[in-house]
């Protein structure tokens, strides 16, 4: 059996069965190792060409990931850039990240993954992924170890058509030019501060112009002056990022100079928000092309939560091994902001 056939077989376990079948521990160890080898050759900032579809936070909402592929097109027919936060919160973090790992291995030039703030040992220990692994693998944490070790290899951002910078969170006062990101040692746990931390934790803020400490406890808020300077210094026209819950699925800042795309509808199965993916068809526009609600060549596809999420919740589907949704979130004192 060839490598591609092995991957195809694993993909069928996740895509052709309801519920999706869990991959064995040894299979997950193997695919994580193979992807680490591939990512060793990947720079901190990838260079990507349009057309491409950008996907924001997924947070273990596996059914909604499948909806995204229905809306945007299945790989390899559509190119995808995933902006991080694949695990925690949802019922199916393991299935979600395993599917993305397999797709990246199967279609390495069509699927691109970057790191979010939840691709971290510390965060996943507290927000669900670790508990889910223990519950689904009979108390063993090995799958969590394999996958969180892989997280250390994920790149930190991408430049699309040399015009758009994409990252999970936002900008850093420690970084004025992209070359500073290119020299960061990313092969480690996300630190508490510095460029790497800011890229996965920071947020735009319409009320300020410069940088301000973030109420998240990590990263910064950044304003219009910071955004304009970053674009000028790096000869880019736009920042696209995820990281923040959006009631309408996306948010447009500074007439399109910064966009947030959020891809987890009805976040935590209770927030009631819409979600979106962002299609970039081309980047044949200049620095003054942005308008309030749209940019030529960019389309937000907005969608609602999959009905299967409601079925899980109504039927008392446990969240990461707990008895019910309410007890899980009450016990964790969930902060939707993280």
Low-confidence stretches: 318-334
Structural class: alpha/beta
Number of domains: 1
What is the CATH class name?
Answer: Alpha Beta
| Main sheet characteristics | 6 strands, mixed
Question: Strands across the major sheet, in which order?
Answer: 1-5-6-10-12-11
In N-to-C order, the SSE pattern is HHEEHEHEHHHEEHHEEEHEEEEEHH
Reported CATH architecture: 4-Layer Sandwich
Q: How many angstroms separate the termini?
A: 43 Å
Helix content: 25-40%
CATH superfamily: Metallo-dependent phosphatases
Number of helices: 12
Mean pLDDT: 91
User: What would you report as the Rg, rounded to the nearest angstrom?
Assistant: 19 Å
- Briefly note the CATH topology name: Purple Acid Phosphatase, chain A, domain 2
Strand proportion = 15-25%
Key traits:
single chain, six-stranded mixed β-sheet, Purple Acid Phosphatase, chain A, domain 2, 338 residues, 12 helices, 14 strands, five-stranded mixed β-sheet, alpha/beta, Serine/threonine-protein phosphatase PP2A-like Ppg1p
What's the topology here?
Layout: H1 3-15, H2 25-39, E1 45-48, E2 52-55, H3 62-72, E3 80-82, H4 93-106, E4 111-113, H5 121-126, H6 129-136, H7 142-151, E5 157-160, E6 164-166, H8 178-182, H9 195-201, E7 203-204, E8 211-213, E9 220-222, H10 224-234, E10 238-241, E11 250-253, E12 258-261, E13 275-280, E14 298-303, H11 307-314, H12 325-332
Parallel strand pairs: 1-5, 2-3, 3-4, 6-10, 7-9, 10-12
Antiparallel strand pairs: 2-13, 5-6, 8-9, 11-12, 13-14
Helix pairs in contact: 1-4, 2-4, 2-7
